[in-house]
């Protein structure tokens, strides 16, 4: 088991090496502004048996969670996702890597349920938890690339997951593990990845840029490496690389912290622009999501760059891929094309009969072509599904912010695997060529700090629904009575006429 704790701070802040306090208890420093990432790398044989049995059912598993609360970050922690829990895995989730086979419904349920329970998403009545029906398959961009299956669920925080770790994974006397588990409640991001080829699992937690103490407890059960780093400029820094400098140390060793200066290729980088989203009013049953971006200039002038928005939509709302097909219509919304969508997407079913978790779409945006860097907007037409009746006649739904980025071609085909902080398989990256660099646009809410948009949806009033049932029955009864009355009147007035062939023969005689 290996542990790595990395602090990245702005170039104008930090901590001097002489202010580091290293002893048998671990490492501590005074408070300063920094980001933090904790990463554990474990072999399959180092995990609890029940956890290993779950992971053993996948050939590849990627779980990512992002907080719905806005936060600031620094490179190399630039990757963004819509708020909520994202599960991405390859179709061959059963069998071995040498002899994979497609999963059945029961197998998907068996391997995903323990994960869902640990994150606090399972209901008490698990017979109603139709995970297999909720899974969708994403259409990938490059030909021949895999079609991973995905699952999404809104998740506000990791408090339940922290309690699960504390009770099921950490020992009662492992104070360091208990403390780290509780600290997850303030994290802004969590990644869990497993690769069957290497039989290793990685768990990474991220804390945003804020003033915080550097405190890393020492544990004899694992090797813990600590880095306190900032952006640097090593010699011969290549394009699409990030240079860093700082100090590195290993807890439990008597060696003094050593200086570090190195570089690595970055799949995710930060652009200088930002965006916000809001639904145009009145929303009605066909709301339009407006994206407001602060600039229209690409982050790189010497590379081919295009802006995109990757939307993750709950089952209560969806985009009609047929509507997003006309060039003139798309141009009027400052959109270029719908590049990918998850399947299946039922365009008619109400939300309460829809089995899928929702849908995701990748839209290429069309910024103004002016040379000056200027703010601009793009509009995404969406459609609400019918919801269940309520006591008030209104239901509130939340739509998470999309991930907005510029996708730029890399100059030299960088090997992102050399990046110790790389974040791969986040959903939209599988829709592009493997050497694409994503320049992320920072989401900034115009009001408050939540990265979600709320809509009040008109639904049937429960009190009115009872009256409608009675009224419908009454109208049907009246209609049936009217038909009977007309039949009776006709018979009473003209008598019963036998129009059969036998009657005709009788008349001829």
Automatic annotation (TrEMBL):
Name by which UniProt lists this protein: Protein PBN1
Taxon lineage: Eukaryota, Fungi, Dikarya, Ascomycota, Pezizomycotina
Gene Ontology MF: a single term: mannosyltransferase activity
Function per UniProt: Required for proper folding and/or the stability of a subset of proteins in the endoplasmic reticulum. Component of glycosylphosphatidylinositol-mannosyltransferase 1 which transfers the first of the 4 mannoses in the GPI-anchor precursors during GPI-anchor biosynthesis. Probably acts by stabilizing the mannosyltransferase GPI14.
UniProt entry tagged with the keyword Transmembrane: yes
Keyword Cell inner membrane belongs to the record: no
PANTHER family: PROTEIN PBN1 (PTHR28533:SF1)
Pfam families linked: PIG-X
